[in-house]
Specification:
- With about 375 residues, the chain is of the alpha/beta class.
- The chain contains twelve helices and 13 strands.
- The chain folds into two domains: about 110 residues, no CATH class; about 220 residues, Nucleotidyltransferase, domain 5 (2-Layer Sandwich).
- Helix 9 links the parallel strand 11 and strand 12.
- This is Carbohydrate kinase FGGY C-terminal domain-containing protein.
């Protein structure tokens, strides 16, 4: 969630010619080097790669597929900023055994294979078996992203387009970067003992209000809006509204933000039919049904909601059993559990409210643009 490296991201965007978000690796590296000089740095690691190194692995950077280099370590861009190549561990393919566990403070047994895995969103794609066109992984967490598998070459407006786990396919993504964080923020300001369960219960009990809106952009936004200065808002707030009403508005606002991304996908490529959620919100029936109604698409949950964990298990299975393909591993590890289909009357009223949300978002973007 650290997006403080705004200036550095802007510099990288100018050099690379591609949008670069402050939360990406290289922007953070440049930010750190304003504090520490390179003489004090041995290697730069992401969190999971550093943990693997501490447990006994060789220094490594996980490269999901060719084409991801500009968003991880990019030699051409590094050279422009005077960064030496030895600062960045060499790339390895997920599924590669990069070492075995040595003596460690976690008391793990010795000599367990350490296997390079995927970043969170690709692990969730693998763990929900979204490995063919027509499937979207909805990765919930502190942020929430829709990741759609497509075989189309077209570059959609504003969305991330990167190689999929399966060669020949593409992953299109976008979403709400402060979804779970917005819920956490609301729980903290509601009252001392207000929990996620309290939030869901209040949102469920609150009546539908066509005029109360929440823009969930509490820390700017990445794809598809690409606006680091965008702010969150309550709109239509009155003295008559309660904590329950605000909880429902926050939840609806997050899902409207997802719908904005989903409609971008549908405008540019084949309309999708199945969304598979993953993460801490994926196991809450009320939220799944609300999401189906707002997006207007069928949701299919898995027996185990933690898609990222399952995806890491799938790539580990591939790593220790080379004869098993990633497709087979993902297909065997994901078990469909429940379906949620749009309810006609609910969908119609949310279609109308999404139109109001879209206009409010356009207005917010224009206000931000006009602000000196």
């Amino acid at each position: 969630m650290d997006r403080s490296a705004v200036t550095e991201a802007d510099d990288i965007t100018k050099v690379s010619g591609k949008p670069y978000d402050p939360s990406f690796y290289l922007a953070k590296v440049l930010r750190l080097l304003h504090i520490y000089n390179t003489a004090q740095v041995w290697k730069f690691f992401s969190g999971p790669e550093y943990l693997a190194f501490l447990l006994g692995a060789e220094p490594a950077s996980y490269l999901p597929a060719p084409g991801y280099e500009p968003y991880i370590w990019n030699k051409n861009v590094h050279e422009v900023f005077g960064l030496e190549e030895h600062l960045f561990p060499p790339y390895v393919e997920p599924g590669t055994v990069i070492g075995t566990t040595q003596k460690n403070n976690l008391h793990l047994p010795l000599n367990i294979p350490i296997i390079a895995a995927y970043p969170d969103f690709l692990a969730a794609i693998a763990g929900t078996d979204c490995m063919r066109p027509g499937l979207i992984c909805d990765r919930t967490g502190s942020s929430e992203t829709l990741n759609a598998c497509t075989d189309q070459e077209k570059n959609p407006d504003g969305l991330f387009k990167l190689p999929h786990l399966i060669p020949g396919f593409w992953n299109l993504s976008g979403g709400v970067s402060t979804s779970g964080k917005a819920i956490d923020w609301f729980c903290r300001i509601a009252h001392e003992h207000y929990s996620l369960e309290s939030f869901v219960e209040d949102a469920y009990r609150a009546p539908f209000d066509p005029n109360l809106l929440f823009l969930p952009y509490l820390n700017g936004e990445r794809a598809p809006l690409w606006n680091s200065k965008l702010k969150g808002q309550f709109i239509g707030l009155s003295l008559n509204h309660s904590t329950q009403d605000l909880a429902r508005a926050v939840l609806e606002g997050i899902l409207f933000g997802l719908r904005y991304t989903y409609e971008k996908m549908c405008n540019d490529i084949t309309i999708y039919h199945i969304v598979r959620p993953s993460g801490f919100l994926a196991d809450i029936p009320y939220i799944n049904q609300l999401k189906a109604n707002i997006l207007g698409v069928t949701l299919e949950t898995g027996l185990i909601p933690e898609g990222e964990l399952l995806g890491c298990a799938a790539v580990a299975l591939k790593g220790i059993s080379p004869k098993i393909t990633l497709i087979d591993a993902c297909n065997n590890i994901f078990t469909p559990y429940s379906l949620y289909t749009p309810q006609k009357n609910e969908k119609e009223k949310y279609d109308e409210k999404f139109y109001v949300f879209s206009n409010a978002l356009i207005h917010a973007l224009q206000n931000e643009k006009d602000t000196p």
